[in-house]
Specification:
Blueprint: H1 2-25, H2 30-36, H3 40-45, H4 47-70, H5 75-99, H6 104-126
Organism: Microlunatus capsulatus
Transmembrane segments: 54-72, 79-98, 104-126
Keywords: Membrane, Transmembrane, Transmembrane helix
Length: 127
Amino acid sequence: MIVAAAVAAVLAALLHGYIFVLESLRWEDPRTRRVFGTTAETAAVTRSLAFNQGFYNLFLAVVTLVGVLLLGPVPDAGVALVAAGTGSMLAAALVLLLSDRSKARAALTQGVLPALALVVLVVGLLV
């Protein structure tokens, strides 16, 4: 079960790494604007906000990946970091959903893998 949790956590981290690229490196690119449904004008005005938010996503991904790497040699630290990283990803997805119901698809995209990782991790620790 811990291996399955690690796989889900890595996938969640990769997704959040991709979101970092979109928000921090490619925010004003037309393809990125289509993904987020923004205009060129809105993207220009919100560039610094997106840049900062992208780094939050990157940091969550890094914490999660470090946790996965530590699951073998230092299991308690690994579990703590995986739970903190994926828990924060899930919490952010819930905030997105609760703040703007029109963003439900984005919230599900961001939240399903972290939720799966957390559930499987907890089950794996209990059995």
